[in-house]
Amino acid sequence: MRSAKASAQVRAPAEDVYAFLADLGNHWRLASRWIEVVTLDRGGQRADRATVRLSGPLGLARTVQTRVDTVTPPSAIRGHGTCGRTEADVSWTLDPADEATRVSVEVRLMRASPTDRAIWLCFGRAWLARRLQLTVSGLDDVLDALARAA
User: What is the dihedral of CA 114, 120, 122, 123, to 10 degrees?
Assistant: First the structure.
């Protein structure tokens, strides 16, 4: 199945972007109201597991268990989310470009319940791709605000 993807140029060095994204607790600062954090697990310095509630179109909602699986400083973060029989892989890739970073995110549906597969194929993938684009595009503003506050 096709994945949902998005990318944007961020006016921050890859190390700063990585430091922010490597903590799962920061991701929800980007996603606005379509993701609500139910629980957040800080096993160490960074949060690496969370339960989130996704709110989609047509009143659809899913509670998803998420986890960061691997990190490759400062260029990649990979994880996954599960909701019943549905599982997706999520990958963030950071490509340095002078004083900026090209940030890409991709969600690949690995397996799905029949209902979730139909939703993905009919409109879910396109809907998620739009939400991911808004999320990754907002990264610039969030990092800028954090830098000003520091």
Answer: 150
